[in-house]
Amino acid sequence: MIKAVSFDFYNTLVRFWPPLEEIQQAACHELGLTVREDAITRGYAVADVLFNRENEDRPLSERSDEDRLEFFGRYEQLILETAGVSVSLDLAKRVWKMAMTVPKDFVPFNDAVPALKQLKEAGYKVGVITNLRRDLDELCRRVGLAPYLDFTVGSEEVGMEKPHPPIFMAALKRVGAEPQEVVHVGDQLRSDVMGAQGVGMQAVLIDRNGYGPEAVDCPTIASLSELVKLLECLNQA
Question: Going residue by residue through the chain (237 aa), what tens digit of pLDDT does each one get?
């Protein structure tokens, strides 16, 4: 019986505002590049796999400014190449640096708060597991998610990031449940799905734009509004 649901934070419960696609498109325009917003969305889906793999191997927060710029240049290059625009590494770095000057903040997806409310009303414990190195409780309060959360676990407090087991084990301890009693929902195959499954938790992949991996060993949803019904099915299986 499922007792609790944990969520990844960025790209699962919240997104950036202004949207990254708009920021990227504007930066590209300033530098003489033309790219469609929907193509940038696909570019991010591909580049984020690289981001998570690199961050898992060696956290970007622990790298020098020079190393981070080198990585994000390659990250930007992959975004644009996937979007159909080939650029040099130097130009990719210029696009990235220009995009990063735009002020932005987190805002919940439209389906986030309604889904959290539904889960709480259905009796589930609800929480967040994230690799963001921020004051997570304050961040959740600021974006309006805190009233619906029973626990939060961030990589900064644990000292390890998803998909490594310690961050998931810390969440299980926090919620007081066995691994098979918890479902983790996230947008990344390796850090969310495989990480959760690695400690015995169930996993759900959220693929909002249809650009996720084609074959995954878990249920896939396009919106958090599908989650309560899915959990009912999992409990009956």
Answer: 999 999 999 999 999 999 999 999 999 999 999 999 999 999 999 999 999 888 888 888 889 999 999 999 999 999 999 999 999 999 999 999 999 999 999 999 999 999 999 999 999 999 999 998 888 999 999 999 999 999 999 998 998 999 999 999 999 999 999 999 999 999 999 999 999 999 999 999 999 999 888 778 999 999 999 999 999 999 997
DSSP structural state of residue 10: B
Beta pairing partners, 19: none
In the chain, which ranges are E strands?
4-7, 14-17, 105-108, 125-130, 151-154, 182-186, 202-206, 220-221
Terminal-to-terminal C-alpha distance of the chain = 10
- Tell me the β-bridge partners of 15: 107
Q: Residue 206 forms beta bridges with which residues?
A: 221
3-state secondary structure of 127: strand
- Looking from the CA of 200 toward its CB, the CA atoms found within 13 Å total 10
Check which CATH number belongs to the domain holding 67 and give it: 1.10.150
What range does the domain containing 142 cover? 4-15+107-236
- Is there a single domain that holds both residue 39 and residue 154? no
